[in-house]
Amino acid sequence: MKFKRVNAMYYIFSLMGGLLILFILLPILRSFLAQTPSILIKEATDKGVQEAIFNSVFLAVVSATIAALFGVPLAYILARKKFFGKSFIESIVDLPLAIPHTVAGILLLFVFGRYGMVGVLFERFFSLRFVGTKLGIIVAMLFVSLPFMVNYAREGFEMVDVRLEQVASTLGATPFEVFRRVSLPLAIRGVLTGWVLTWARAISEFGAVIILAYHPMTAPIKVYDVFTQLDLKHSSAVAVLFLVICLAGFVIFRFLAFGGIGKSGKR
């Protein structure tokens, strides 16, 4: 009797999960089925569409890499150290997840705009602008996506046994050697997961990017632009092309990140 009740629970859970998967897949499949080959080819060969997709993919890679460069050290500190205000720092890291992205774009303008504290300095000393440039796109992508990098990397470091680091220290390793040779290799799955999800979040950003840098266009902005300038058929064609690229990139990055780990077993 107990076995039957357990089976019933799994059937119910499977049904609920299946409905959720269907909720995700149905709009995607419908958009694919709605495509007209001639419009799809036209948009695929459009240089503006190609450039927008390239901007999204490449600048998201740059943003995720910057997030890893600065986020991994912060994640290690949060995972290993206890200090006054730690909860406050963790809340600040998560804050971009709660801020509406158009609001995030406006907030970034106060700092990176032509009259913002950072924007003025960069334009005066380096002749670099954030508004309407790829640099501005990177800033917007980084702001909304960096929590994924820090949080997943922190979870990865928290899974590493502290005693292994202590043993390495007693053998004469410096703190940085312990981090590089022990902590980081053992936490690499969490770090790579954070990188991939940061990239995925950055490539899809619209609200913050459109305020800070409408041009050069990224793919989400191009979809919106085509929708307002033409119609649903043309914009959905661009959306499908972008979706295919995103899916391919997501699969490739996950394979590169976890393929070697999976072949050699858990680390």
Structure characterization notes:
This protein has helices at 2-33, 37-44, 47-80, 86-98, 101-112, 117-126, 134-158, 162-170, 175-186, 188-203, 207-212, 219-229, 232-264. The protein is an all-alpha fold and 267 residues long. The chain has one domain: Orthogonal Bundle (MetI-like fold). Helix 3 runs antiparallel to helix 10, helix 3 (47-80) crosses helix 12 (219-229) and helix 8 (162-170) packs antiparallel against helix 9 (175-186).
**Structural class by secondary-structure content:** mainly alpha
How would the global form be characterised? Answer: globular
Determine the number of helices (DSSP H or I, runs of at least 4 residues). 13
Tell me the number of structural domains: 1
Mean pLDDT: 91
Uncertain stretches: 263-267
Largest sheet: none
* Element order: H for helix, E for strand: HHHHHHHHHHHHH
CATH homology superfamily name = MetI-like
Q: Quick one: how many beta strands?
A: 0
Q: Which second-level CATH architecture applies?
A: Orthogonal Bundle
Tell me the name of the CATH class: Mainly Alpha
CATH fold assignment = MetI-like fold
Q: How much of the sequence is in beta strands?
A: under 5%
Helix % is over 70%
Radius of gyration: 22 Å
Distance N terminus to C terminus? 41 Å
